[in-house]
Amino acid sequence: MRRWLFVVCAVFAAALVVSFSNLAAQAQSTDQYGSSDATEATQDSSETPAPEESPSGASSSSGEIVSQGSVVDVNSPEVTAAREDLAEEERLPDYSQVVDNTTKGAFQASGWKVERGPYSHGGSFAAAEGAKAPARYEIKIPTSNDYSVYVWWPQVPDGGTARYGVQTTSGMQWSKVEQKPDSSGLWIKLGTYAMQEGQRTIELAAKPVDGGRVFADAVAVVRGSSAPPEEQQTFTASGERSATDGRRLARFSGRDIVRQARRHEGDKYAYGTCTKRAKSCTCLTKVSVNPFGHTLGMTENGQWKYDRSRRIPKSRLKPGDEVFFKENGQSGPITHVGIYSGNKNIWHASAFTGDVTQTKMRYIDGYFGAKRFKSR
Description:
This protein is an alpha+beta fold. The protein contains 6 helices and 22 strands. β8 and β9 form a beta hairpin. α4 packs across α5. The protein starts with a helix and ends with a strand.
C-alpha cells in the first residue's frame, strides 16, 4: 500500500513540474516576442507603432490594432470611433505651412553649408558638413491639435540616416529617416503629432545615425488633410524647375508613381469600384501606374502576377513600389494593395478610413510582398 501511495505521489509531482515548465516557457516566449507566434512577432518587431502615431480609436478590445486595409468590419465600434475622431479633425479648416532653408526668420543652422543639388526644395539646401549645432525650423501652430509633419531632402548620393525632433505636447519626439536619393524630391511623412498653439520647433540633428551626411532642406506641417502641400518647388542642379506630370513617359521614377497616387487623396473607398470619385485598393494602384504605360487588372492576385513588375525584398522598398497584404493570414488570398511612399508609409484606398489616404504600413495586417514596376 505504501509503495502504491509513493508511486501516485511521484506521478503527481512529475505532472506539476511539467506544468510549471510549460507555463514558464510560455511566459518567456511572450516576454521575448510579445506573441505566441515567435516567427511572426520577430519579423514585425521593427514595426511597433510609436505612441504619438497610434490611430485614435483604432484599438480593439483585446488591445490589438485594427487592420486599416480592405478586410474591415466597417460597423465595428473601433472603426466607428476612429471615423468619428477623423470627422472631428476634418471639421477644422485646412492649414499647412512650409519652412525652407531659405525662409527668413524661420530657419537657423549655425555652421551648416549651403549647397545646390537635384530636387532641392527652393533651389538649395544646407548640409551639416561637420557642424555640431542642429538645424532648427520655427513653425507657427494656429490651434492646439494633431498635425502631420513632412520632410524633404535633395537627391545627393551620400545621405545618411537623419534624426528629426518635433516639439509636441509631451516634449520633443525624435524620429529617424534615411535620406536616400530614391526618396528625394518628395514630401516624406515623418508622423502625426499632438502640438500646442504657438511657435513650435522642428530640429534636425547635425550628426547622422549611421554615417553619410545630413541635409536640412524643407519641412511642412499640415492639419485637416493627410496630404502634404503641392510639390511646386522642385529644382534641378542647375536651378531649373523640373516637371513631372501625368503624361506617358518612356522612363519614370518611383516618385512619379507616388505623385500620381496622392492626386487621388480623399477619393471615397468602394469595393470593386474604379471611378473618378470612388476607388478600391486595386483601382488606386491601377490609376497610379497607368500614365507610365502599365496596365493592371482589378484583382489583387492579378496585380501580384503582373509580368512587367519584379519582386523585391521588404528591406529594399523604394517609393513607387506596390505592396501587398494578406490580412486573413499568409495561407489566405491577397486582400489589400497600396503604393509605398517612403519612411514606411503607403498611399492606399482604405476601408478603415473610407477613402484614399496615406498611413503607416504597419497599421495593415499581413504584409506579403512588394513589386517594382519596370521602365520602358
